[in-house]
Amino acid sequence: MSNALIIVDVQNDFCEGGSLAVAGGAGVAAGISRLLAAEPDRWDHVVATKDYHVDPGAHFGDPPDYVDSWPRHCVVGTAGSEFHPDLETGRVEAIFHKGEHAAAYSGFEGHADDGECLADWLRARGVDRVDLVGIATDHCVRATALDAAREGFGTTVLLDLTAAVAPVTLDIALRAMDGAGVTMLGKPVIRAA
């Protein structure tokens, strides 16, 4: 069996200067790159997810409620949907796009260019353990971690390489992941309350 790193949504729109920026997002991008350079043999596989919206309906709100609807972000074909430039993507073997026509938070809702879903891709390569990093701890990282555990993967979130939106939603996410048996190491980046 083998392990994989899942890099969740480290995209321009979720980093400083983006339309749905999370404080510390650029630092997370750089930190992931440093870790990959420092420990090149730590993971057998590295994959990434992307929010990838075409027309996600009520997921975009005007005005947004920041619960179920959000400002326009990660629209296909825009600079905001691209990976942050501080994220080194040379080791990324596959990218799983999610949310083209509906809200999607978990990378396990996504698919590669050939249509293969994340769970099938991992299983085809004998992966039984995954580590997660990325943005945002309390939304897409949480959803991806919960689905990874539900799919039967040993799941660890490297919190030091995640950035969270808000203390309240972070607390809810940490409790949910703990309750699902997800291992959490470190502390996420979060703006002071």
TrEMBL record:
<comment type="similarity">
    <text>Belongs to the isochorismatase family.</text>
</comment>
<dbReference type="Pfam" id="PF00857">
    <property type="entry name" value="Isochorismatase"/>
</dbReference>
<dbReference type="InterPro" id="IPR036380">
    <property type="entry name" value="Isochorismatase-like_sf"/>
</dbReference>
<dbReference type="InterPro" id="IPR000868">
    <property type="entry name" value="Isochorismatase-like_dom"/>
</dbReference>
<keyword id="KW-0378">Hydrolase</keyword>
<dbReference type="InterPro" id="IPR052347">
    <property type="entry name" value="Isochorismatase_Nicotinamidase"/>
</dbReference>
<comment type="pathway">
    <text>Cofactor biosynthesis; nicotinate biosynthesis; nicotinate from nicotinamide: step 1/1.</text>
</comment>
<protein>
    <recommendedName>
        <fullName>nicotinamidase</fullName>
        <ecNumber>3.5.1.19</ecNumber>
    </recommendedName>
</protein>
<keyword id="KW-0479">Metal-binding</keyword>
<keyword id="KW-0662">Pyridine nucleotide biosynthesis</keyword>
<feature type="domain" description="Isochorismatase-like">
    <location>
        <begin position="4"/>
        <end position="184"/>
    </location>
</feature>
